[in-house]
Amino acid sequence: MNGNLTKRAWNSGGQDGWTGEFGSLANALHIDRVAPGDGEVQISWRLNAKGEGDRAPLVIEATLQPEGGESVIKRFDAGAGYGNATISNLKNGIDYRLHLTWITQDGSNDPVVGPVRLFRCGHVPGTIVNYIHPEDRTYDFSGRSTASPSIVKLPDGRLVVSHDVFWMEAGQNLSMIFSSDDNGRAWRFINYLSPCFWGKLFVHCERLYMLGTSTEYGDLLIGCSEDGGNTWSAPTILMKGGTRETGGPHKAPMPVIVHRNRIWTSIDYGAWKSGGHRTGMLSAPIEADLLDSASWTVTPFLPYDPQWPGAISGGSLPNLLEGNAVVAPDGRLAVIPRYQTIGGLPSHGRTIVLYADAEHPDAPLVFGKTIDFHGNMSKFTVQFDERSQKYWSLVSRVTGANAGQRNVLALVRSSDMEHWEVVRDVLNYEDNGWPENDKQVGFQYADWIADGDDLLFVSRTALNGAHNFHDANYITFHRVPSFRDQAATGGLEIR
């Protein structure tokens, strides 16, 4: 796709240690997962000091300092350099400072002290995959907020979730990988990927792939893992990047589908600062080497046209981005994008369908139609479900005057990809009567898979003292049992 492509090392590190040069991640003792829930926190750690992991027995001392209180020390067996623990009987709604100290029981080594991590306990729906406190500087080179969740199920049943680390105008170049081998009941950290941002996990020919960018509007990259996400290849550059000012490749964890013997996914080009985004499709033959850039074809990028029939009038920088590749009922290949309609008429509830030419993957997209759609103002994942013969999505439904509201996540469906109905809200902060409001709480950017009778999803969740609704502090995992049957009766249960 680009004749001047190179490979660079994709820095990654799992239980064997982080090899990058990014701030406190290179520290000898590092907390790689923090998950504060209702009155407790789960933590996991790694010891990276060379040779120290061979000494035993090892002990980890966890020092917790609650806001306005005295420090408390908890002790745990450290194993051979990697471990996890749950600390209970904590207070909700206050900030804690936490650091670990590694020692030997016989005092034969100098203590190894890890960097401080911050957290705040509170009730959280679902299961916590990961958490970053908005004032935690551990990942400051990339950001301070959890973002862009992606989920896949591997052939062996393992669930793998990724998210990147975001902060406005920060480096935005780190993704974190987690896995669950018990259907999502428990999660563990397995890897960092850097540079990697806006990443989408997908499985093809029983291999796990990551399609992302090196940073915001950076190089478009693809790499793969042969062992369930524990180790990764060097990535291939599929498209050279730009900057926030000039524009470059833009994406999110959008669906990767197979249609007419090709893999397809949407890709944008542009930037908010350069006037918005243009929409395209990226594809490769299913039998091709996906790590060979020559395998991939990209369409020309289609700019938004305010003269399209049914387009909103006015608005603050209306444009399309984060499109869903999906096959329409008539067999055509479509893109259903997020439609930036804030400030326009109407300000929400509408999106646009574009069509690609599946027989000519280098042909430009064309305008198809404008449709009514709940939750167009935030990224959503649309997928066709073979069993129900319906299209499904999880969307941030707007219930009030704030068109940018993201604290009500709704399950929606359609039989024809054009007329959509709300089945039920799956996460509705308004129902709980909690003190935070729609400026502070978000259930957003949900990525999901159908798993037998159930729907599994991950949410970029802002709750319990997030910086704001947009800059989330959690990635949460949720299961909707028997979603097809319960949707028909309205008895939807969320876990």
Describe this entry's structure for a reader:
There is one protein chain. The chain has one helix spanning 483-489; strands at residues 11-13, 29-36, 41-47, 58-66, 72-77, 82-87, 95-104, 112-113, 117-120, 127-131, 145-153, 159-166, 175-180, 188-194, 197-204, 207-213, 220-225, 236-239, 248-250, 257-259, 262-271, 276-285, 297-298, 302-303, 313-314, 320-327, 333-339, 344-345, 350-356, 366-372, 381-385, 390-396, 408-414, 420-428, 442-451, 454-462, 474-480. It contains 1 helix and 37 strands. β12 (159-166) and β13 (175-180) form a beta hairpin. Helices cover 1% and strands 47% of the residues.
How is the secondary structure organized here?
Elements (H helix, E strand, L loop, with lengths): L10 E3 L15 E8 L4 E7 L10 E9 L5 E6 L4 E6 L7 E10 L7 E2 L3 E4 L6 E5 L13 E9 L5 E8 L8 E6 L7 E7 L2 E8 L2 E7 L6 E6 L10 E4 L8 E3 L6 E3 L2 E10 L4 E10 L11 E2 L3 E2 L9 E2 L5 E8 L5 E7 L4 E2 L4 E7 L9 E7 L8 E5 L4 E7 L11 E7 L5 E9 L13 E10 L2 E9 L11 E7 L2 H7 L6
Antiparallel strand pairs: 1-14, 2-3, 3-6, 4-5, 4-7, 7-8, 7-9, 10-37, 11-12, 12-13, 13-14, 15-16, 16-17, 17-18, 19-21, 20-21, 21-22, 22-23, 22-24, 25-28, 26-27, 27-29, 29-30, 31-32, 32-33, 33-34, 35-36, 36-37
Q: What is the CATH fold-level name of the largest domain?
A: Neuraminidase
Average pLDDT reading: 90
How many individual β-strands?
37
Q: What fraction of the residues are assigned to beta strands by DSSP? A: over 45%
Q: Which architecture of the largest domain would the CATH scheme give at its second level?
A: 6 Propeller
Largest sheet: 6 strands, antiparallel
The CATH class of the largest domain: Mainly Beta
Number of helices: 1
Q: Taking Cα atoms only, what radius of gyration do you get, to the nearest Å?
A: 23 Å
The structure class reads mainly beta
Taken together, the total number of domains comes to: 2
General shape: globular
Terminal residue distance: 43 Å
Uncertain regions spanning at least 5 consecutive residues: 1-9, 13-21
Proportion of helical residues: under 10%
